[in-house]
Specification:
The protein is mainly β and 64 residues long. It has a domain at 26-54. It is built from 1 helix and 3 strands; from the N terminus they run αβββ. The chain has one helix at residues 19-22; strands at residues 25-31, 40-45, 50-54. Strand 1 (25-31) and strand 2 (40-45) form a beta hairpin.
């Protein structure tokens, strides 16, 4: 989760100094967030009110 950043480049993942924020992401499931036929994992954070998506490269298992 250390690559989660908002549009201003502010980190909300493991680099976030607020311990409550960086440890409170919850996996919600898969969703095609932009209707392109690719399902992304979605995570929410009740402490920060933020959410994030990422896709996983099938061949490598690395999050994009």
């Amino acid at each position: 989760m250390n690559k989660i950043k908002d549009f201003d480049g502010i980190s909300h993942g493991l680099e976030n100094p607020n311990e409550n924020v960086k440890s409170n992401y919850k996996y919600q499931g898969l969703i095609d967030i932009n209707a392109d036929g690719v399902k992304e994992d979605i995570f929410t954070n009740a402490k920060s009110g933020r959410w994030a998506t990422c896709s996983i490269e099938i061949n490598t298992g690395i999050a994009n």
